[in-house]
């Protein structure tokens, strides 16, 4: 299961992480987000050497605004506290896994 990132833990879990971190920005009312969610959870269970988590944009509007999230789902991959890759919309699992490389 993917972690839940909030403004309280984002800096510690994502920005200060010494391994890559995949962050899925989503909302409960978003149909495509519901399609992507299980894929992100699968990746979280399978991947080693990276963290995988989610940010609910309705509950964490500050994080969504900080990273300019205009469309959901948006997946960002952070490495060394910086955005290293991004993907907007529903993508196949293989594409998302490729973002971590």
Number of domains: 1
Question: Order of strands across the widest beta sheet?
Answer: 1-3-2-4-5
Between the first and last Cα atoms, what is the distance in angstroms? 20 Å
Count the DSSP helices: 4
Strand composition percent: 25-35%
Number of strands: 5
CATH-level-4 superfamily name: Glutaredoxin
Q: Major sheet: size, sense and barrel closure?
A: 5 strands, mixed
Compute the average pLDDT: 97
CATH C-level class: Alpha Beta
CATH architecture: 3-Layer(aba) Sandwich
SSE order, one letter for each helix or strand = EHEHEHEEH
Helix content: 25-40%
Report the principal-axis shape. globular
Could you say what the CATH topology is called?
Answer: Glutaredoxin
Oligomer status: single chain
- Report Rg: 12 Å
Structural class by sheet pairing and helices: alpha/beta
